[in-house]
Amino acid sequence: MSVDNIISQFEKRASNAEPIGGKIKFEVDGIGILIDGTSETNIVSASNDDADCTISLTAEVLEKLRDGEINPMMAVMGGQIKITGDMGLAMKVQSLMS
């Protein structure tokens, strides 16, 4: 899965979701994808800027999350996903995945 493809998928979902009220950065295979939900809409971009919450995972795990093949909580508990920062924002990620 390419970065452009990941950003495109997030843009489709983020544009339909309520603003998340903060900045979440996904580090997918070391590449930063920032979702800025601090204004009226969620804006998705390739960026390594600071965020309120950072979620680190591989592209493979991201695909499985998107497709509903793995449980997000189990992936965190199993070390497939690392979350730092605002856990409340992390809980809003589900709205960007469905």
Describe, in short, the structure shown.
The protein is α+β, with helices and mostly antiparallel strands. The protein has helices at 3-16, 59-66, 72-77, 87-91, 94-97, and strands spanning 23-28, 31-36, 43-46, 53-57, 82-85. It has a 5-stranded mixed beta sheet.
What does this protein look like?
The structure is a single chain. By secondary structure, the chain is of the alpha+beta class. The chain has a single domain (3-93), classed as Nonspecific Lipid-transfer Protein, Chain A, CATH 3.30.1050. It has helices spanning 3-16, 59-66, 72-77, 87-91, 94-97, and strands spanning 23-28, 31-36, 43-46, 53-57, 82-85. A five-stranded mixed beta sheet has the order 3-2-1-4-5.
Which features would summarize this protein structure in a list?
5-stranded mixed beta sheet; alpha+beta; Nonspecific Lipid-transfer Protein, Chain A; globular; 98 residues
Q: The biggest beta sheet, please? A: 5 strands, mixed
CATH homologous superfamily designation: SCP2 sterol-binding domain
SSE succession? HEEEEHHEHH
The structural domain count equals 1
Q: Give the low-pLDDT segments.
A: none
Instruction: Please give the CATH class.
Output: Alpha Beta
* Rg (C-alpha, Å): 12 Å
Let me know the average pLDDT. Answer: 90
Number of distinct beta strands: 5
* Secondary-structure arrangement, i.e. CATH architecture: 2-Layer Sandwich
Give the neighbour order of strands across the main sheet. 3-2-1-4-5
Shape: globular
Q: In which range does the helix fraction lie?
A: 25-40%
N→C terminal distance: 18 Å
CATH topology: Nonspecific Lipid-transfer Protein, Chain A
Give the structural class: alpha+beta
Work out the strand percent.
25-35%
Q: How many helical stretches? A: 5
